[in-house]
Design brief:
Elements (H helix, E strand, L loop, with lengths): L1 E7 L2 H5 L7 H7 L1 E4 L1 H7 L6 E5 L4 E8 L7 E5 L2 H5 L14 E10 L6 H7 L20 E7 L11 E6 L2 E6 L3 H7 L9 E4 L2 E4 L2 H13 L4 E5 L5 H14 L2 E4 L6 H10 L6 H7 L2 E5 L3 H4 L3 H4 L17 E6 L11 E4 L5 H12 L9 E2 L2 E2 H12 L3 E6 L1 H4 L5 H14 L4 E6 L6 H12 L5 E2 L6 E2 L6 H6 L5 E5 L3 H4 L2 H9 L1 E5 L5 H5 L2 E3 L10 E4 L5 E4 L10 H19 L1
Parallel strand pairs: 1-5, 2-4, 12-13, 12-23, 14-15, 14-19, 15-16, 19-20, 23-24, 24-25
Antiparallel strand pairs: 1-6, 2-5, 3-4, 3-6, 7-8, 8-9, 10-11, 10-25, 13-21, 17-18, 21-22, 26-27
The chain binds ligand MGD (2 copies), iron/sulfur cluster and molybdenum atom.
One ligand MGD binds next to β1, α4 and α19.
Organism: Methanorbis rubei
GO cellular component, one term: membrane
Pfam family, one: Molybdopterin
C-alpha cells in the first residue's frame, strides 16, 4: 500500500536517547504507527511486521495500530530505522524531508533488525563498552544539588534536584522522563577507541588527539558537525579550528530549525522570552510541534498550565490551539485541534491571514483539509486575544514548504499584530542549539552552515550544510560532536560517514560510534563538565557540573586538537 512516511518524537523514544546500544532503544524506534483502517488493508495487526520501502531503501518495522494517525500516513519515531529509508535531498534548505516521503508498505514475515545491525549494513561496526568500565576519578560522597539545569531539550529547565552518590545520579526530582533518562544513563565511555579493520582497539587520549589532528590537517574538505549537545565555550574553540584548516562548521539547526532561521532572515521575528508567555499569554498556538513528547515540561513550566502575573488561574485563563497532521499527545490537551493535511500549512497560514485581513469571502469550503467554519472560529479566537503566543515546530521546517511555511506563519503573526499583541517562538530542540546560532553568529557572522574553505566565511544552506556536503560525498574527514548522525542522518550520508575519516567526540556510546574510525570520550556538560547554554528563547543559562571526574571536557580535547593541528601546519612550512 502506498503511504506517506512522516517521522517525529515520541516520549518513549526520547527517554531512550541515552541508551542507544540497548534493545529498548531499537524497539522504541522501530515502530510504525498506522491507522487501523490502513493496517487492515495491508493485512497486519499490532505487533506484526511491515516492510517499508522508499526510493532510498527498505527495512522492517513493527506495527502499532493508532487511531491518532490519519489514514494515508505511516508515522515513524525519529531514529535509525526511519533514516534507513530516508533520502538525503534537502531541496537547497539543508533539512531533509524527515516529514513527508512516499513509501510502499507491505506485510512481511522478516524479522526486525537491531539499530547496530542497521549501522553494520551501512559499513559500521558495533562496539560494546567493556563490563566494569568506570569513569576515572569520580567524585566520592553523597550530595543533593538543587536548581540544576537539565541538558536535554530546549526548555533547559534549571530547577532540577539531583541526588548523587559517588558520582552516580541516584534520583532526579522535578525532571521529566527525558531528563531522568540522561542523568541516569550508564552508557558513558572512559577510554578512546579506534577502528582497526573489523576490530576496535583502545588507545590513549594523546594518541587519539594526534590521530584526529592528522586526519583533519590532511583532509581536503573537513566538516565539523553537531555542537548543540555541548557548551557554547566548546563551539568557540571548534570555530577556531575550523578557521585554521578551512573546514565547514555546521550545527544541528541545519536539519532542524535552520529553515526557521531562513524565514526569520527574510521577514524578521516577533519573539519574546518564555517569562512573557507565562505571565501574559491567553491564547497559545502549538503549530507543527508536540511539546508533550519533545519538550515535556514546556506546558507546565512556561505556558499552558503555568500560572503567571496576569494569568492567575493558569490553564483556565488560556485557550490552547494545536495544529498537527495527527492527534498528537499535545493535541489531546487542546481546546481546538486543527488536523491539517501533511504539507498543508502554507495554505492554512495564508487562509487565516486572509480572514484576519477581513477577506472571508475568498476562503474556499476547505483549506488543507480544514473546514472554513473552523477557520473562522479560530481567527475570531486569535483576534480576541490580549496576548497570543505561537510556538512552531519541525512539523513546519521538515515538511514540504519548509522555510516558506515558517515565513507564512510569521506573516500571520505580523497581521495579527495589527490588532493585538502576538509573538512567535520556535520550539528549538536541543538544550544548546540556540547557543550554536548565538556563538556561530558572534564568531563567524552566520548562524550555521559556515564554510571557511575560501579563507573568508561563506554561508549557503543547501550547499554548505552538513547533510548536503555528505550527500554530495564532498567531506573526507568529519568531526561528530554533541550529535549522533548514525541515529539521525539520512541513510546515504551515514554510509558515506562510514567510508571516510569520521571522529566522534561524545561522552556516551552512540550509533555514530559504529560508523567512526575514532571515538574520543569526554566529560558531559551538566554531569562532570560545565558551560554556557542558551534556552529556546535565547536566555543564557550556566549549566553547572553535578560532580567532578578525571574525564577531559570538550574544551580540553578541542584545545589540544587545535595545538596539534597548529604543530602539524608549522612542521609543514
Ligand atoms: N522525546 C524527544 N524529545 C525531543 C527530541 C527527541 O529526539 N525525542 N529531540 C529534540 C529535538 S532535536 C527537536 S528539534 C525537538 C522537536 O520537537 P517537535 O518540533 O515537537 O518535533 P516532532 O515530533 O519531530 O514534530 C512535531 C509534530 O509535527 C507534526 N507534523 C508532521 N508533518 C507535519 C505537517 O506537514 N504539518 C504540521 N502542522 N505538523 C506536522 C508531527 O505529527 C509531530 O507531532 O524535540 C526535542 N525533544
Ligand atoms: N527520521 C528523522 N530523523 C531526524 C529527525 C526527525 O524528525 N525524523 N529530526 C532531526 C533533528 S531536528 C535533529 S536535531 C536530530 C537529532 O539530533 P542529535 O543531535 O543526533 O540528537 P541526540 O541523539 O540526542 O544526540 C546528542 C549527542 O550529544 C551527546 N552529548 C551529550 N552531552 C554531551 C557533551 O557534553 N559533549 C559532547 N561532545 N556530546 C554530548 C550525546 O551523547 C548524543 O550522542 O535528528 C534529526 N533526524
Ligand atoms: S522539559 Fe526538557 S529541559 Fe525540562 S526537564 Fe524535560 S528534557 Fe529537561
Ligand atoms: Mo532538532
Amino acid at each position: 500500500m502506498k503511504l506517506l512516511m512522516s517521522s517525529g518524537r515520541t516520549p518513549e523514544q526520547g527517554a531512550q536517547l541515552y541508551y542507544k546500544d540497548s534493545e529498548s532503544y531499537s524497539r522504541e524506534t522501530s515502530y510504525c504507527f498506522l491507522n487501523p483502517m490502513d493496517a487492515m488493508e495491508i493485512g497486519v495487526e499490532d505487533g506484526e511486521h511491515v516492510l517499508i520501502e522508499s526510493t532510498a531503501g527498505k527495512t522492517v518495522f513493527s506495527v502499532r495500530e493508532s487511531p491518532e494517525t490519519p489514514e494515508g500516513v505511516a508515522y515513524l519515531p525519529c531514529g535509525p530505522y526511519a533514516n534507513f529509508i530516508l533520502h538525503e535531498f534537502t531541496h537547497s534548505t539543508g533539512a531533509p524531508d524527515f516529514k513527508g516521503v512516499p513509501v510502499e508498505v507491505t506485510q512481511t514475515e522478516l524479522p526486525l533488525q537491531s539499530a547496530w545491525d542497521l549501522m553494520e549494513e551501512l559499513g559500521g561496526r558495533r562496539y560494546k563498552i567493556p563490563t566494569g568500565t568506570i569513569i576515572p576519578d569520580l567524585e566520592q560522597g553523597e550530595k543533593v544539588l538543587k536548581n540544576h539545569a537539565c541538558p536535554l531539550c530546549g526548555c533547559l529547565c534549571d530547577d532540577i534536584e539531583l541526588h548523587i552518590a559517588d558520582g552516580i545520579v541516584t534520583d532526579v526530582v522535578n525532571g521529566c522522563l527525558l531528563c531522568a533518562g540522561k542523568f541516569r544513563s550508564h552508557g558513558r565511555m572512559a577510554v578512546p577507541i579506534r577502528r582497526e579493520g573489523d576490530d576496535w582497539k583502545e588507545t590513549s587520549f594523546d594518541e587519539a588527539i594526534k590521530t584526529a589532528a592528522e586526519m583533519f590537517a590532511n583532509a581536503k574538505r573537513p566538516l565539523f558537525y553537531g555542537w548543540s549537545g555541548t557548551s557554547t565555550e566548546a563551539m568557540h574553540i571548534g570555530l577556531e579550528i575550523a578557521e585554521e584548516i578551512g573546514a565547514v562548521m555546521d550545527n544541528c539547526s541545519s536539519e532542524c530549525h535552520g529553515p526557521t532561521i531562513m524565514a526569520v532572515q527574510e521577514v524578521g521575528h516577533p519573539g519574546c522570552t518564555l517569562g512573557q508567555v507565562k505571565n501574559r499569554a491567553d491564547v497559545l498556538v502549538y503549530w507543527g510541534c508536540n511539546p508533550i513528547a519533545a519538550h515535556p515540561r514546556h506546558l507546565s513550566r512556561y505556558s499552558t498550565y503555568s500560572t503567571g502575573a496576569f494569568r492567575p488561574e493558569g490553564r483556565a485563563d488560556r485557550t490552547v490551539i494545536v495544529v498537527d497532521i495527527r492527534e498528537s499527545e499535545t493535541a489531546k490537551l487542546a481546546d481546538i485541534f486543527i488536523q491539517v493535511k501533511p504539507g498543508g500549512d502554507y495554505a492554512l497560514f495564508n487562509a487565516l491571514r486572509a480572514i484576519v485581513r477581513g477577506e472571508r469571502d475568498v476562503i474556499p469550503d476547505t483549506v488543507a483539509g480544514v473546514e472554513r467554519s473552523v477557520l473562522f472560529k479560530v481567527a475570531d479566537i486569535l483576534l480576541n486575544a490580549k496576548f497570543g503566543a505561537f510556538f512552531t515546530g519541525i512539523g513546519l521546517t521538515q515538511s514540504r514548504g519548509k522555510y516558506k511555511n515558517v515565513r507564512a506563519g510569521i506573516e500571520l503573526v505580523d497581521e495579527l499584530n495589527r490588532h493585538t499583541k502576538y509573538t512567535l517562538t520556535p520550539l528549538r530542540g536541543h538544550w544548546n542549539v540556540d547557543g550554536t546560532n548565538q556563538m556561530f553568529s558572534l564568531a563567524a557572522g552566520y548562524p550555521y552552515a559556515v564554510d571557511y574553505s575560501r579563507g573568508i566565511v561563506h554561508y549557503n544552506p543547501g550547499e554548505t550544510s552538513g547533510v548536503d556536503i555528505l550527500a554530495k560525498h564532498e567531506a573526507d574527514a568529519v568531526m561528530i560532536i554533541g550529535t549522533d548522525l548514525g541515529a539521525h542522518f539520512p541513510r546515504e550520508t551515514v554510509a558515506h560517514l562510514a567510508r571516510i575519516n569520521t571522529v566522534v567526540i561524545d561522552p556516551f556510546i552512540s550509533l555514530s560510534t559504529a560508523i567512526a574510525k575514532l571515538h574520543i570520550p569526554v566529560a558531559s556538560v551538566g554531569l562532570d563538565a560545565e558551560g554556557t547554554a542558551y534556552r529556546l528563547d535565547g536566555v543564557p543559562i550556566h549549566v553547572r557540573k553535578a560532580f567532578t571526574s578525571g574525564m577531559p571536557s570538550d574544551e580540553v580535547v578541542l584545545t589540544r586538537l587545535l595545538e596539534e593541528i597548529k604543530k602539524i601546519k608549522e612542521e609543514r612550512k
